[in-house]
Amino acid sequence: MTIHAFDGNTEAAIQARIDLAAALRLAVMHELEEGIDNHFTVTLPGYDDRYLVLPFGLHWSEARASDLIVFNEAGETLEGEGLVELSAQCIHAPLHRLSGRRVVLHTHQNWALALNMLEDNRLVPACQTSAFFAGRIAYDDHYPGTADTLEEGERLAGLLGDREVMFLKNHGVLVAADTVARAYRLLYLLERVCRAQIRAMSTGGRLQPISDDIIRQVQTPDEADRHKGRRDHLYFEAMKRVLDRSLPGYAD
């Protein structure tokens, strides 16, 4: 069912569509996706209860801004053609509503998933990038099976709290942030540090965590950093330029 109840073609909505389509294609380029499964959502600008998503059945590599549909927590398609996948509705809509975050990205990306398959799935702050995540990850240590009720999204929202990243034991990862640029950069960096940790562990050697003092220094913005506050934006704009060369069409 398609309900054309409003106009979602404001400048902000159009940009949100472009950024979300770009993030989906980037996830293919960076091997973070599972074809047509998993889900990225963005709260539609101008609303707090309507969300953009790629309709189920399209491969992430073919995502276009014009393909994205708008859905609500009841799972109704309010704009566009296609349906929202059930677990996207049940996980994402409550997370948006309860956390207030505008962007929620959920994947089963390979290296993060490998870490979440372990009995001890904690990310160890043993390098500069993983130190950035120290104390900033929520852990869901109970896998309840596939998400098919809104209560599951509400449960996850309660566990997430004010953090931006969640590890889902035996499942995958989830990032919730206020911009697509921020959320996607976190997802990208998370996969790289999970891969580094798994590879380091595979040597049989012991990981050497960074001290708490250095972690605090890494996590505290340097007043001399001329790019402070702009790194997420600069990263995402650079990634879209890469897409423009290698996998164009996301903005259509």
Description:
It is a single chain. Helices cover 41% and strands 13% of the residues. Strand 7 (165-168) and strand 8 (172-177) form a beta hairpin. Mean pLDDT is 94; it is low at 1-6. The two termini are 24 Å apart. It has helices at residues 11-29, 86-99, 110-116, 128-133, 150-160, 180-202, 212-219, 231-246; strands spanning 39-43, 51-53, 69-71, 77-79, 103-107, 137-140, 165-168, 172-177. The protein is globular. By secondary structure, the chain is of the alpha+beta class. The chain has an eight-stranded mixed sheet, with helices on both faces. The protein is built from eight helices and eight strands, in the order H-E-E-E-E-H-E-H-H-E-H-E-E-H-H-H. The longest helix has 23 residues, at 180-202. The chain has a single domain (11-220, 229-242), classed as L-fuculose-1-phosphate Aldolase.
CATH class: Alpha Beta
Largest sheet: 8 strands, mixed
Strand order of the largest sheet: 4-3-2-1-5-8-7-6
CATH topology grouping: L-fuculose-1-phosphate Aldolase
The beta-strand count equals 8
Terminal Cα span: 24 Å
Q: Could you tell me the radius of gyration in angstroms?
A: 18 Å
**CATH architecture, please?**
3-Layer(aba) Sandwich
**Order of helix and strand elements from N to C terminus:** HEEEEHEHHEHEEHHH
- What is the number of helical segments per DSSP (H or I, 4+ residues)? 8
Helix percent reads: 40-55%
Give the helix/strand class: alpha+beta
State the domain count: 1
- Give the low-confidence spans: 1-6
Gross morphology = globular
Estimated share of beta-strand residues: 5-15%
Average pLDDT number: 94
CATH homology group: Class II aldolase/adducin N-terminal domain
